[in-house]
Amino acid sequence: MADNPVTEPRSRRRFSDATALAAALRPSYPVYCFRPHKVRAVARHFVETFPGKVVYAVKCNIEPRVLGWLAEAGVTAFDTASLTEIAAVRERLPDADALFMHPVKSRAAILAADRVYDVSTYCVDSMAELEKVLQVARRRDLKIFVRVATPGGGAAFELSIKFGATQAEAVEILDRVAEEGLQAGIAFHIGSQCLNPRAFRTAFAVIADVWRGTKADVREIDVGGGFPVAYAGQPVPPLEDFVTEIVEGRREAGIDEDVALLCEPGRALVADGCSMLCQVHLRKGDRLYLNDGVYGNLSEPYWSRVRLPARLIRPEGINGGVSDAPLQDFTIFGPTCDGNDLLPTPFRLPADVSEGDWIEVGQIGAYGAALATRFNGFFADAQVELADEPPDTA
Ligand SMILES: Cc1ncc(COP(=O)(O)O)c(C=O)c1O
């Protein structure tokens, strides 16, 4: 068995699929399995379908190679929330646009964004934040998006609880942006993993009053993220349906067609582009103890009850080779000593799954590594690239 790769350099090895990877490395540690072809294909479709600028939300997965594959597919702008994210974009893609879209920023972060990283686009949702940006940023070709709170309507993760100005506040802030002679935009976010395309039309109805009420010449509307991923057992409407609602929403709101659209997808661009190869370290009846879990890369099911696809990986010579045992549900525990390190939904796997087998867990490309902790000393560090299709979500 290979040792934990803490002492090894990050692997860039390529394999045809997870079985070839498991046969070659026999990893007792969890391994990120990137599929560059998948990231590129999904991003290309998004860029071709969305009638405006696609701005990738870096928070979702900051891996520099992911940023590179997105850029290869035509993504030229990146939504950043911190200096770390801005630096990641600037270092990997010096010519790309980095937008600083967190509505609450420290003065130090604004200072560095302005002086070091040459950022010109900021988002605010309060007058106090706008004044902070005006006081700290030196450049005067700023573009300011004002984020408006809108109802979630079907999102797994609500964001307007924390961010977003009321309509009246937004009008006041935009008027101040106009007074300063700066470029103005309106932003909203319907919440992450939104299954209801109509939520975009509803959001446009909310910002319509702001658009009409302000004296600012708003030239751009940022519709945020929220575009959903088809997790196991959760079919989602196609991207085209969301685009229809966005375009119709803009028309119904009376907003001119030449007002440009932006979107900030994270999850929808990268969830399918990475899976995790985990190993079974113990089986107790129908309970499996894996080397990754809720405190690692498998936290999304814990927060939002999404179901991740999983398949048994058993190369020849391991536990009797390929399994033809019937499928059954297994309860999944992660490696830490916390009782909460337990997935809320089971994995359906062959009944003979045993210690030493591997399980490939799909759709961890979004908010997987981003939310992983180092609790108990367990963390994933090894990366490979695979050439096949990811685990089936049916
Ligand atoms: C401002 C902003 N933009 C974009 C996103 C990405 O959202 P999603 O992953 O749902 O596309 C988020 C997620 O929290 C966000 O806060």
UniProtKB/TrEMBL annotation:
<dbReference type="InterPro" id="IPR000183">
    <property type="entry name" value="Orn/DAP/Arg_de-COase"/>
</dbReference>
<dbReference type="InterPro" id="IPR022657">
    <property type="entry name" value="De-COase2_CS"/>
</dbReference>
<feature type="modified residue" description="N6-(pyridoxal phosphate)lysine">
    <location>
        <position position="59"/>
    </location>
</feature>
<dbReference type="GO" id="GO:0005737">
    <property type="term" value="C:cytoplasm"/>
</dbReference>
<keyword id="KW-0663">Pyridoxal phosphate</keyword>
<dbReference type="GO" id="GO:0004586">
    <property type="term" value="F:ornithine decarboxylase activity"/>
</dbReference>
<dbReference type="Pfam" id="PF00278">
    <property type="entry name" value="Orn_DAP_Arg_deC"/>
</dbReference>
<dbReference type="GO" id="GO:0033387">
    <property type="term" value="P:putrescine biosynthetic process from arginine, via ornithine"/>
</dbReference>
<feature type="active site" description="Proton donor">
    <location>
        <position position="337"/>
    </location>
</feature>
<protein>
    <recommendedName>
        <fullName>ornithine decarboxylase</fullName>
        <ecNumber>4.1.1.17</ecNumber>
    </recommendedName>
</protein>
<feature type="domain" description="Orn/DAP/Arg decarboxylase 2 C-terminal">
    <location>
        <begin position="273"/>
        <end position="365"/>
    </location>
</feature>
<dbReference type="InterPro" id="IPR002433">
    <property type="entry name" value="Orn_de-COase"/>
</dbReference>
<dbReference type="InterPro" id="IPR029066">
    <property type="entry name" value="PLP-binding_barrel"/>
</dbReference>
<dbReference type="InterPro" id="IPR022643">
    <property type="entry name" value="De-COase2_C"/>
</dbReference>
<keyword id="KW-0456">Lyase</keyword>
<dbReference type="InterPro" id="IPR022644">
    <property type="entry name" value="De-COase2_N"/>
</dbReference>
<comment type="pathway">
    <text>Amine and polyamine biosynthesis; putrescine biosynthesis via L-ornithine pathway; putrescine from L-ornithine: step 1/1.</text>
</comment>
<comment type="similarity">
    <text>Belongs to the Orn/Lys/Arg decarboxylase class-II family.</text>
</comment>
<feature type="domain" description="Orn/DAP/Arg decarboxylase 2 N-terminal">
    <location>
        <begin position="39"/>
        <end position="271"/>
    </location>
</feature>
<dbReference type="InterPro" id="IPR022653">
    <property type="entry name" value="De-COase2_pyr-phos_BS"/>
</dbReference>
<dbReference type="InterPro" id="IPR009006">
    <property type="entry name" value="Ala_racemase/Decarboxylase_C"/>
</dbReference>
<dbReference type="Pfam" id="PF02784">
    <property type="entry name" value="Orn_Arg_deC_N"/>
</dbReference>
